[in-house]
Amino acid sequence: MKIIVDAFGGDNxxxxxxxxxxxxxxxxxxxxxxxxxxxxIRRVAEExxxxxxxxxxxxxxxxxxxxxxPKSILREHKDSxxxxxxxxxxxxxxxxxxSAGSTGALLMGATFIVKRIKGISRPALAPIMPSxxxxxxxxxxxxxADCRPEMLVQFARMGSVYMSHxxxxxxxxxxxxxxxxxxDTKGGELQLATFxxxxxxxxxxxxxxxxxxxxxxxxxxxxxxGFAGNVLLxxxxxxxxxxxxxxxxxxxxxxxxxxxAALVMPGLRMLKKKLSTSxxxxxxxxxxxxxxxxxxxxxxxxxxTNAIRVAAEFAASGAIDEIAAGARPTDQGExx
Amino acid sequence: MKIIVDAFGGDNxxxxxxxxxxxxxxxxxxxxxxxxxxxxIRRVAEExxxxxxxxxxxxxxxxxxxxxxPKSILREHKDSxxxxxxxxxxxxxxxxxxSAGSTGALLMGATFIVKRIKGISRPALAPIMPSxxxxxxxxxxxxxADCRPEMLVQFARMGSVYMSHxxxxxxxxxxxxxxxxxxDTKGGELQLATFxxxxxxxxxxxxxxxxxxxxxxxxxxxxxxGFAGNVLLxxxxxxxxxxxxxxxxxxxxxxxxxxxAALVMPGLRMLKKKLSTSxxxxxxxxxxxxxxxxxxxxxxxxxxTNAIRVAAEFAASGAIDEIAAGARPTDQGExx
Lengths: 336, 336
Fold this sequence. Notes:
Oligomer: homodimer
Order of helices and strands of chain A: EHEHEHEHEEHEHEEHHEEHHH
Largest sheet of chain A: 11 strands, mixed
Largest interface: A-B, 62 and 61 residues
Radius of gyration of chain A: 21 Å
Shape of chain A: globular
Distance between the termini of chain A: 30 Å
Strand content of chain A: 15-25%
Number of helices of chain A: 11
Number of strands of chain A: 11
Helix content of chain A: 40-55%
C-alpha cells in the first residue's frame, strides 16, 4: 500500500505532514510518496530528527495556495505539489492521495486529473464527523451549492457504500435526508423531490432528519445539498469553538472555579478527544476514480497519520469499485 | 399596553403561561388578555396561588395541537385559543400576540388573520439568538424553505429595522448573508443573485458570512433562506445540547471530577445563562401587520415573561410602521 501525500498543503506544512507520515510508516508499515520540495523536506526532517525511511519524494517546486483560484491547479499550478500528487495517483504510482491544501483546488484537481467515476454527475466532499454516538458522514459539505434530486441520491449511495466498508453497522448505514422536520412532507422543492427517490431505493433510508438530531448521531450518512451541508458543518464547528472558549473563561472566573478546573481537567480532556475531528482523517472526496482524502487545513501530525490510515483503508476496501458498479445503470443489472 | 397571550400553546400550558403572565403584570404593569378555557385557567391559577389581577380572559374551548395541519387554524380550529388570539389582535383588542403553540399554525394564522404587510412577499420567522458577543437575529429560520433573492432582501430590511429598534448599534445593525465562504463570489444561485442587491441597498451590509462565525456574533442580522436558516438554528441547539450533556458526564466521571464539578458550578451557571435563548423571548414573526411572537414550545414562566416584554417593546417601537413604509415602493420615495 502506497499513499501519496502532498507535503505542502495546509497551515502546518511540511513539518507536521512529515511527522505524521513518519508515524504512519512506523505504525502501519505503509509506503509513502511525498510531493514537494525535496530540499526543504530533507532539511526539515533532519532538523527535527525525523526518519524518511519508507518514504519516496517526488520533487516539485510549486505550491498552490488558499488564495489561488481552484482552476489554477489545471494551468498555472499544474506542477504544484497537489497537482503532481493527483497526477501520480491517476498514473497508478500510488493507491490514494492525502492533502490538507485548498479544498477548491483539490476538488477541481481530483475531478479533472483523477476524473469522475463514469455515471456520477458530481463528486462530493464528505467529512467524517464525531457525534455523541458513532462517527457519521456528511455528504455534501460544500462541493455543490446547488443540487438536483438525482445528485442527492448519488450522494446517499456513495456515502452508504463508504460507511458500510469503513464503519459497518448491521442493516447497513442509516441514511437520513437533512430537512426542516422529520415528517415525510417537509422541506423545499429539492427535499420533496428527493424523498420518494430515497424511499424507493435499496438504501437503509430512515427518512427526513433534523439538524438538531445530527450531533446526537441520528444517522450514519447525512445527505444534504452542499450549501445546507456546509452550514451544518460550520455551525457545529463554530458552536463547539464558542462553547469551549466560554467554558475556559467560566472555569477561570474565580479562585474556586480555577481549583475545580484543575480537578475536572481529565474529564474535559476525554470530552475534547471524543469531539475531535482529527481521529477520522478529515473529509473523503467521493465520486472520483481513486481515493482522495482532504485533511483539515490546520491538521497536526496525528491528524495526518489518521488521514493516511483512512486513505489506505479506503483504498483497500473496494468501495470505489462498488460505487462505480452502482453508478452505471447498464452494469447494475448484471451485478445484482 | 395590552398583550394577548395564547394560554394553551406549548408543552407547559397553561400553568407556566399563567405564571409568566402574572410575573409580567407585576414587573411591567402590562394588561394581559389570555385566550383559552376560562374554567381551567381559573382553576390552575387558584391551585397555584397565582393572581389573575390585570388579566382578562376570552373563553375558548378548542386547542390547535402540534399534529394538526397548519391550515386547520383557518377552518376546523378557527375557534382555538391561538386563532382567537390572532383574531382579537387583528380587531385591535390588544397590541401583540404571544404563543408557544404550533409554529406552522401560528405562521398560517398570522399571515391570513393578522395579514401580511402590503408589499411584503412572505412573512419570515426570525429567532433572536445568543452569541458570544450580542444577541443576533436569524431571518428566516424555516417559514420559507425556497426563497427568491427579493425575499432575502426583504428579510434583510425587516430584520435590520427590528434590530435597530430593539438592539441599537452605531452605524446600524450589521447585516450578513449566510454563505459557504466570505468572498463576494461564493454561494449558489440564490446567494450570487442576492449579494449585489444587498450590496447596493442602504443597509449596513457586511457581506457574506460563514456559519462558523455566527455563534461568535459576526452579524446582528443573519440573512438566509428558511432551509439553511433552519439548519443553522437547529445545529446550534443540537450541538449545545450534545456538548452540555457530555460535559455533565465528563464532570461526573471520577470522584475528583465530581469534587471539581461542585467548585466550577457557578462558572457553568453563568455560561448556561449566557447561552440561554429564554432571555430574548423566542422568535419574531416579521412581515405581518401586528407584532406576533412565537415563544419556544418548551418555554417556562420566565421565557413567557420575557416574550411578553419583547412583544410589548416591539409593539411600542414603531418597527412595523417603518417596515410597512419601506415595503411600499410608492411610499418609499415620499419617506426619503
